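Progress against Task 2.4 (sequence-to-structure conversion) is shown through the following example record, which the project officer requested during the mid-term review.
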Amino acid sequence: MLYLGKVLLKLKDKYITKDEYCLFISKKLNISDIDKSAEEIEKYRLLKDEDKNKIKKYLKNEKIKNSKNNRRKSILNTIELESSYAINFFCSSNLFNFEDSKILISNEKELKSFIKENEKISIWIDFKEKKDWFYYYGNYDSDKSSAEFALDYYTDISDIDKAVNIFSDYKNKKIELSDNMKNISEEDFKSVLVDEKILEDFLERHIEELEKGLKLIGRQYPTISGPIDLLAKDKSGKLVVIELKKNRVPNKFIGQVSRYVSFLESEGNKDVRTIIVGRNIDNNIKLSIKQLKCKTDLYSFDYKVNFTKIN
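Structure tokens generated for the chain above:
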């Protein structure tokens, strides 16, 4: 919303055609590309129709390797097929409307107010799975900004660099986060993420070290409630949700685990159980797991490294 709105406000004629959206908006991956998008669109509008068609023809001939879908042979074809969903999504708000194959600003004053209110608490989120995107837009939480969601999301999927970048921006007062982060240093924040990323890597390869008989189904297993750290089956065939605590607040963390369990049960799985692993399992976690209706085991962990001289 912010990206599209800012580009529209920068354009002389305050509209974006469907072709322009597909070519210059849809694949941008950084909020800092706003000026670039606007400049590209203005230059594109100076071209003759013949030259515009040559550009589109060239891009449609750039094929996607190993694509088995005849309608999605090229990236541009795929974007065009999916653009209607994206445009309808944007125009479902009261900020934009779509007429004569153009995205228009419904109310410029409201759009500017929206941008001003959300600029400091909004952030670009690089979703790894479509289900993660649906979870974000389908999970209205008035107390959580997109910056807080992004930090939780990157922490969940163990993307250390992106999580630390957001936390660093918070410490440098570039973005706002909830007060529960203020007493954590950047060094401690990164240390916990690194420790648990190492643990997650280890468990992916040696899941039976946690519990005999466990068989890994998937890591960062996608659900409509967000990605599960590790999903496994125990020796009796029951699903086991394995979550690493990381830097998450106990109540919100347990609530997230509960949603994973509910999703798996809605898929027809019975007696789903959970295992929670953390460097420090405090009383808050012990009390919070009482909210879970399923069997839950708590594990703490540490690392032991021994060196033996061999020469």
